[in-house]
Design goal:
Layout: H1 7-26, H2 28-33, E1 40-48, E2 51-52, E3 56-63, E4 69-70, E5 73-74, E6 77-80, E7 86-95, H3 96-103, E8 114-123, E9 129-141, E10 144-156, E11 164-173, E12 181-186
Parallel strand pairs: 1-9, 8-12
Antiparallel strand pairs: 1-2, 1-6, 3-4, 3-7, 5-6, 7-8, 9-10, 10-11
């Protein structure tokens, strides 16, 4: 058999294959560098006066202030490749006319046609993966229409030793603070 005549070549090939397998198994940064899935993924939920409100007219994101890109939503789920360090601004737009119809609050009709909810993720290591649970709750507190933005998030490092789980919360008067409604989070 010709295959076994060159036993040294066969052993060398097996050794190289073993080294490659060991590198992937024990060098997490290499495994993370070759990760091809979405590095930023999560869910977004909007409730109005305790009830789910599915009307979001558009969802976009920017990376480092560059051009807006459409954020693909599959129901409440989204994902972004997110292969760079920097700031990812996820913007979900709410139709204020539909919101006024839902709540019966006529003051909402005097706002811009859409309100933007900004969830700003600050990524300090492009090898990390982030799983986000974003929520916005619009409710009435006395006569004041308020909004509470919450980001529960997990940041998963290649080694798994430095994983972070945290929450960021911001609360606004929906009508008077409508120029910017956002919450910043990340590491």
């Amino acid at each position: 058999m010709k295959l076994f005549k060159n036993r040294k070549a066969l052993l060398a090939a097996a050794a190289v294959l073993l080294v490659i397998i060991l590198l992937f198994a024990f060098v997490p940064r290499l495994r993370a560098r070759l990760y091809t899935g979405d590095r930023i993924k999560g869910t977004v939920k909007l409730t109005v006066d305790g009830e789910e409100f599915p009307v979001m007219s558009e969802a976009v994101y920017t990376y480092e202030g560059e051009n807006e890109r459409k954020l693909s939503l599959d129901g409440q789920n989204f994902g972004i490749r997110g292969k760079g360090y920097g700031v990812y601004d996820l913007c979900f737009k709410i139709d204020n006319k539909a919101l006024a119809e839902k709540t019966g609050d006529k003051r909402l009709l005097y706002l811009e046609p859409e309100s933007e909810l900004h969830f700003v993720y600050i990524c300090t290591d492009n090898l990390n993966r982030a799983e986000l649970e974003l929520s916005a709750e619009i409710y009435l507190d006395g006569n004041v229409r308020k909004i509470k933005l919450v980001s529960d998030y997990g940041i998963f490092t290649p080694s798994g030793k430095d994983d972070i789980y945290s929450e960021a919360v911001e609360e606004y008067n929906y009508i008077y603070d409508n120029g910017y409604l956002g919450v910043d989070f990340g590491m």
